[in-house]
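Annotated sample (chain length 218).
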Amino acid sequence: MRTRLRILPRSVVLALLLGASLATDRVHAATPRPACAGACSQIKHIVIMVKENRTFDSMFGTFPHADGATTYIDLNGSRHSLGHEPDSLAYDIGHTIQDAKVADDSGKLDRFVQSSGAIQKGQDVSDAQFYQSDIPNYWTYARRFTLDDHFFSTIMGNSFANHLFTIGGQDNNADGSPSGKYNAWGCDIDRTYPLSASPEAIRYLEAGHARGKVVITV
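Output written by the structure step:
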């Protein structure tokens, strides 16, 4: 019988590693730790790949033996096959807590199309997914290592709160992005430069003026 490995949720991995380390230090501070035996001795690194503004089903819904979706339900209760996700979007699909509540629709999950930015160039890009041919490298990683098909966003909101939870295991009850004087945070783009202006972009970074990402378009 073939068993599929699943990585622990990010926050759980962090908590377990930290908790085990602290507990071991308290109990065995004066005694040497035994060498790790078996498979764990082969683990050199733990790498967690986090995709922002994507869902499991949009990237791996058709992955063999994964618990993914290939269909969606429309506003009339009819079921359809998910469309083909474009390689890039003109702008993000709405993913604030308000957008999430609309899409969830009390658990019916039938109103993603009503999210801001769901319709782009006449296509419903909120009910769509990539194929293996679109993202072959990600599928190779999933086959070679492991795929976390039962891990879900902890916070029903946008990226900022979930970034905090990914790193810290909690987000101080935030469910949206900060606002105020700059109305920006580390995920935002500060400036965009064409490829020909790369030296100028590098000088701007080195001068320490950037308040977000500096993007060079190709």
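Annotation: The first strand starts at residue 71 and ends at 73.
Annotation: The two ends are 48 Å apart (CA to CA).
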